[in-house]
Specification:
The complex is a heterodimer of chains A (118) and B (201). Chain A has a three-stranded antiparallel sheet. Chain A is built from four helices and three strands; from the N terminus they run H-E-H-H-E-E-H. In chain A, 66% of the residues lie in helices and 12% in strands. Chain A starts with a helix and ends with a helix. Chain B is mostly helical and 201 residues long. Chain B is built from seven helices and three strands, in the order H-H-H-H-H-H-E-E-E-H. The two termini of chain B are 35 Å apart. The chains are: A mainly alpha (118), B mainly alpha (201).
């Protein structure tokens, strides 16, 4: 696997979690979600590909989508976390923390080994 | 920023291509909702656009950040069709998903050819079973140099064609055809499930 493929898989694998985290603090519309992700991460490579993921998360029942008119000159589609989505997010966050902790330990062990070898 | 006529037609052109692309894979109501959402994104970005020397630069930058319409459409299709095909296993969603992967990836193209051969062989065998009672001399097992190569039907039968078998060919062709169709369909579903897992999200 090339470095780019690995990075791409890592990015895709964490996008669901990042989107759920973004809407966990309250309802947001598509562009606001993208802007939040862009402010905190570099997970958004092509803005237009975020919308199909939002659609899938909605179909899976993790998000609830509602069109709001009159707030801006154009209608906005707001997404909010459902109860099922909140449970999934909680589970995903714990999994993510446990996973990164293990990888960090592995990296520390490898670096410690390198230092000892030198 | 208020768009002038050329800017407006550039945005409408983008949305038109996106809509046309989405229509080939998705139901009409889903397409309408998706295009409405992308338009909302564009209008919001354009309204807040500043710093670009010209309107054209601003619109092109916004469209580039959103991604080419075909790429956006492919992302929608991949999320939607793969999911539906794997979950339901129904023929139409499966065909849509296989077609989508065939036109967008090299591996998908060859997988689609393999699956198409499987489906054609299965359907062909079933057709031979259906034809046999009405045209017993024209349908049967084809032999080439004394070796059976498969079920076949020919109208009229060429002198060089060696078709053999009595009515017992019917249950054999039915069983073979159904078996090939089931195996091909299962392979197709597994392939799509593998592809969906590979995409991760």
């Amino acid at each position: 696997m090339s470095h780019e493929t690995w990075q791409e898989q890592l990015r895709r694998g964490s996008l669901d979690l990042a989107i759920l985290l973004t809407v966990s603090s309250g309802p947001r519309y598509g562009l606001a979600i993208i802007q939040h992700l862009e402010a905190f991460t570099d997970l958004v490579v092509t803005e237009g590909t975020i919308y199909p993921i939002l659609g899938r998360l909605t179909r899976e029942g993790l998000l609830d989508a509602t069109w709001v008119e009159g707030e801006a000159p154009h209608p906005r589609k707001y997404y909010r976390l459902t109860r099922h989505g909140a449970k999934r997010l909680d589970h995903m966050t714990r999994e993510w923390r446990a996973f990164t902790e293990k990888i960090d330990r592995l990296i520390d062990a490898a670096r410690g080994h390198d230092h000892a070898a030198h | 920023m208020q768009l002038t006529e050329p800017g407006e037609s550039r945005v409408n052109g983008y949305l038109f291509v996106l809509e046309r692309s989405l229509k080939t894979f998705l139901p009409r109501d889903v397409v309408r909702d998706a295009v409405r959402e992308i338009e909302s994104h564009l209008r919001e970005r354009i309204a807040a656009a500043d710093g670009a020397p010209t309107e054209r630069d601003a619109v092109e930058r916004i469209l580039a950040e959103l991604g080419p319409p075909l790429r956006v459409a492919q992302a929608y299709s991949a999320e939607r069709t793969l999911e539906e095909a794997v979950a339901t296993g129904r023929v139409v969603p499966m065909m849509r998903a296989i077609w989508h992967l065939a036109v967008s990836t090299v591996v998908g193209f060859f997988a689609a050819i393999g699956l198409m051969v499987g489906y054609l062989v299965g359907i062909g065998s079933l057709l031979v079973a259906c034809i046999k009672p009405f045209f017993p001399e024209n349908a049967g097992i084809q032999f080439v140099h004394g070796i059976p190569v498969g079920f076949a039907a020919q109208f009229p039968v060429a002198p060089t064609t060696d078709l053999r078998g009595g009515y017992w060919v019917i249950p054999l062709a039915l069983a073979f055809g159904l078996g090939v169709l089931v195996v091909t369909h299962r392979c197709g579903r597994k392939y799509l499930a593998w592809w969906r897992e590979r995409r991760v999200s």
